[in-house]
Amino acid sequence: MNKIVANAQEAIKGITDNMTLMLGGFGLCGIPENSIAALVEANIMGLTCISNNAGVDDFGLGLLLQKKQIRKMISSYVGENAEFERQMLSGELEVDLIPQGSLAERCRAGGAGIPAFFTPAGYGTEVGEGKEMRMFNGKPHILEAALTADFAIVKAWKGDRLGNLIFKGTARNFNPLMAMAGKITIAEVEELVEPGELDPNFIHTPGIFIQRIFQGVDYEKRIEQRTVRSRQ
Amino acid sequence: MLDKTGIAKRIAQELQDNWYVNLGIGIPTLIANYIPQGISVEFQSENGILGMGPFPFEGEEDADLINAGKQTITAMPGASIFDSATSFAMIRGQHINLTVLGAMEVSQNGDIANWKIPGKMVKGMGGAMDLVASAENIIVAMMHTNRKGASKLLKQCSLPLTGVGCVKKIVTNMAVLDIVEGGFKLIERAPGVSVEEIIAATEGDLIVEGEIPEMVI
Predict the structure, then answer these.
(1) If pLDDT is split at 50, 70 and 90, which confidence band does A84 have?
(2) Which residues in chain B have Cβ-Cβ distances shorter than 8 Å to A123?
(3) Closest to A101 (Cβ–Cβ): which among B56, B75, B127?
(4) Do B84 and A26 make contact, defined as CB atoms within 8 angstroms?
(5) Tens-place pLDDT, residues A53-66
């Protein structure tokens, strides 16, 4: 079995206008930088992007927003991107804001064959409007549907040609969940290793969820909020 | 009157040994600096880490290790890292002992608004709706009034809600208040702040019973 493709350009083949994509990452941490650059280059338009955040003005999904390639965003927090806020308030961009835990679980459910689930998050708010409500243990819950995507694109630290993945630090975030929920899932990795090099006990995402994998290049790994303490 | 640090110090007094604690962005983040002597707590950040440590030393920042505020952090010995669904299983499943977060408005029945100002500011709710809907123990850390001087403790919230009937305790720059049947119950005054000043700065129904002690910070 060999899922390796040459590069990001090869990996995104088949992604066409108006498709729905999932993109892993939290803020700029653990985002598929190479694939985003390839999507910008390929000028694919009308995308629906499911991603916790929308990048910043000049990096991450902000690069796709700049070129107006995104028609709709499904996210939980978009506060770091002025261009996003402008497009949303002017009505150019359709936005579905959903609670972060519900977003994570909706992706997980989509990959796990669970069509919907009840959660207390969002009850009594705009998020709960129009959704089925049911009481469990004396507490109101709302019905949230699973999410899937035409393509999911994730970023991992290490991977092998079978698609097994290991993530590093908090760059894991949404990546393993979205990996399960793509009809086709692309993994870009910092280090592509031989099968057997990754200890099976420490695989985060089993290869079955991955269809294409490639070794990424030139990772910028931009830090959004550089906070440090002084050495005393 | 307290400053933001003072609010953080007062809330830190509420921490109990062996608690798992989720701190929101802003004032709540400061609480980690004032853990009382002899108390051991673990901080959870909802992007996927338990056992979050202090900011790294300069030059040791790691882009792959951040908190929910996107700030560079460190991991304590014994920390664990997990995906976002597992993180919210901890939250939704009520495994977290205390949640502290900021707010734009709180109403006297415990409703909270902190994610949206229609037509002006739409940043999104992030994990706040999941946190407030499930946490058994929520403290709101905020200033008593907004920048225009208007009360943030209201009969009813005017902004879109984050959660309903979920806030139990509020610590502001002026007071500590519990939410009880019938309104905000005044528990403590900030140093130098009179009960009259708190009454004047509170739009919602304020319950004042007996002598109100001054906070000890």
Answers:
(1) confident
(2) 133, 163-164
(3) B127
(4) yes
(5) 999 999 999 999 99
ipTM higher than the 0.85 cut: yes
> What's the Cα-to-Cα distance from A174 to each of A108, A177, A192, A197, rounded to whole Å?
9, 5, 21, 24
Query: Nearest Cβ partner of A99 from B48, B64, B130?
Result: B130
pLDDT value at residue A216: 98
Nearest CB among B83, B116, B121 relative to A172 is that of B83
pLDDT tens, residue by residue, B13-48: 999 999 999 999 889 999 999 999 999 999 999 999
Separation between Cα atoms, residue B100 and residue B106, nearest integer Å: 14
Query: What token pair was written down for A38?
Result: 């390839």
Rounded to a whole number, what is the distance in Å from the CA of A13 to chain B's nearest CA? Answer: 28
Chain pair A-B, CB pairs under 8 angstroms: 182
Tokens linked to A98? 């959903």
Q: How far apart are the first and last CA of chain B?
A: 12
Query: Rounded to the nearest 5 degrees, what angle is found at the Cα of B70, between the Cα atoms of A223 and B160?
Result: 140
> Which chain B residue's Cα is nearest to A108?
B85
User: Any idea what DSSP says for residue A44?
Assistant: -
Active-site residue set of B: 46
Please tell me the pTM assigned to this model. Answer: 0.96
Q: Angle of helix B84-92 relative to helix A100-112, nearest 10 degrees?
A: 120
Q: Return the closest-CA partner of residue A145 out of A177, A110, A173, A178.
A: A110
Contact (CB<8Å) A104/B125: no
> CA B124 to CA B195: how far, in whole Å?
36
Q: What is the pLDDT of residues B115-170, one digit of tens each?
A: 999 888 788 999 999 999 999 999 999 999 999 999 999 999 999 999 999 999 99
**Which residue intervals of A67-211 are DSSP H helices?**
82-89, 100-112, 175-181
Closest C-alpha to A209, from A110, A102, A75, A104: A110
Q: What is the pLDDT of residues B43-71, one digit of tens each?
A: 999 999 999 999 999 999 999 999 999 99
Contact B49 A170 (CB under 8 A): yes
- Residue recorded with tokens 């931009």: A222
- Whether the per-residue pLDDT at A232 is higher than 80: the answer is no
**pLDDT for the residue A85:** 84
| Total residue length of chain B | 217
Q: Under an 8 A CB cutoff, do B70 and A169 touch?
A: no
Cβ distance B72 to B66 under 8 Å? yes
Rounded to a whole number of angstroms, the distance from the CA of A207 to the nearest CA of chain B is: 17
CB contact under 8 A, A104 and B88: yes
CB neighbour list of residue A136: distance below 8 Å, 6 or more residues apart = A118
